[in-house]
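input
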Amino acid sequence: MQTLEETPLRLAGVIRESIVDGPGIRMVVFAQGCPHRCKGCHNPETHDPEGGYDSTVGNVMREARKNPLLKGLTLSGGDPFLQAGRFAVLAKAAHEAGYDVVTYTGYTFEELLAGFLRHPEWECLLRETDILVDGKFILEERSLSLQFRGSKNQRVIDAAASLAAGKAVEREWEYQ
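output
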């Protein structure tokens, strides 16, 4: 079993303080690799799974702990579900450190549920996610009035309630 220091992540980048990727001051961890390739994506450099750079869960958590103002971690991309097992380790470490976790994905909640048998690590990451923002970015549904989302089809989902119900349970953002 790998330690936090040894658990590898393939990253496109990290923003140490953001107020536009979820409620409160957040560290945003951008996964490298995305199968969705949404037209109009604001992070197209994250699509190639061979791009980016190597890091570890330990490196990310060390940086997070340096900022006493952080409310949580946001896992974005790319798509964190391409490295779901590794990002689940990061999300668990974030929870243990007292942070909440927002995860963005181009998959829908229903696609994730349907994929659990083929990708059991998807369930692991979903169980370590507090808020899931799901669905591909659709340029034709783009809206600048949406908080922390790019297009109207994307949903803000309570991950724990959704897993318990076996269906997507949408929620509003909470600000603290």
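quick obs: The chain has a mean pLDDT of 93.
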